[in-house]
């Protein structure tokens, strides 16, 4: 399953977050495959696109960073999958607002 993770630095955690990232490059554990990661130019946070099929591994990885980062994780689908879902319910799709699955607050 694909996810988009959005992170922002917790107040006064820049030094701690930077030190932890520089230790191993923010490498996720086995079971999480990185598709791409981008840092905001102002160093306030960024986005992480990844695949994971194990909720326990995902939860542990999020908790590893929860003390220094505000985190949101959203499951995502590609255009073909979204289009197929919309085609099944054409009268309902335009009325959907926000995330169907709420972000995982940490």
Q: What do these coordinates show?
A:
Helices cover 30% and strands 30% of the residues. It is of the alpha+beta class. The chain has one domain: ACT domain (Alpha-Beta Plaits, 2-Layer Sandwich), CATH 3.30.70. It has a four-stranded antiparallel beta sheet with strand order 2-3-1-4. A hairpin with a 5-residue loop joins strand 2 and strand 3. The chain is elongated and about 50 Å long. The two termini are 20 Å apart.
Give me the strand/helix succession.
Answer: EHEEHEH
Based on CA atoms alone, the radius of gyration comes out at 16 Å
User: Class by helix and strand content?
Assistant: alpha+beta
Q: Can you count the beta strands?
A: 4
- CATH overall fold name: Alpha-Beta Plaits
Query: What is the assigned CATH homologous superfamily?
Result: ACT domain
| Largest sheet: spatial strand order | 2-3-1-4
Mean pLDDT: 88
Shape: elongated
Spans of 5+ residues with little confidence (pLDDT < 50)? none
Q: Name the CATH class.
A: Alpha Beta
Number of helices: 3
Percentage of β-strand residues: 25-35%
**Biggest sheet overview:** 4 strands, antiparallel
CA-CA gap between termini:
20 Å
Helix content: 25-40%
Just name the CATH architecture: 2-Layer Sandwich
Number of domains: 1
